[in-house]
Structure prediction request, 241 residues.
Amino acid sequence: MHIVDRLGVWLTNIYRFINSAFRESIKPFVPAVKAWMQRHKERREDKREDRIFRILNFRIMGEEVVTVPNVLSALRPILALLLLPMRYYGVPLTITAPIFAIALLTDKYDGVWAEQDGHTNFGEFLDPICDKIALFILVLPDLTHLTTWIILPLFTIELVLFVISVGAAISMHLGGLKKSTNLSSNIFGKTKFTMECVALCALAIGFVDFAGWFFAIAIPFALLSILGKAKELMRAHYHAA
Prediction:
């Protein structure tokens, strides 16, 4: 087996082991949340309840948009935007750290909740896009302190991945790709974002040099992520043709 394939299998096993712990932590809440959402998806006469009905039943390309995993994904860049002025004005770490931790944890919980609730193409597209937006926002305050030869290649690769994801979603909408095409991050993309999260934690507590090293480690995983995504989309395009 190719060394990259071996690495992918090894990382996937670690990822599944970590996910199993997160999966167990949400199991008690999944039935209650699903029951609440199902109950409010039925039309009601009350105006407030009718608004909830319209929101919960909003769809894109026939898929539900307002699901728990998608809400958790969208929460990530929102919390990142909230942290931006707080860091600028020197809000104490005791206040920003919990918000920062919640923002990072949404990346784990949206995935494990999707495993319980069912994956959607829109959710698989939204998750990595929200990752990139949150990353750009959180890095902004420390951008001048980070080494250019690390950040510039990494951000360029992230931009390429962003374009690939958007292009794949548009192609799927126009019929160039099957709806069953996987738009989610591959294992190398997930590992890349984990390295970036460690770097962001280091930045939050002022360890800029330490953060730089983890951003550097993320670069090869980002390149492998691009190669894997390109291979997946080429295969999907070939079968669609």
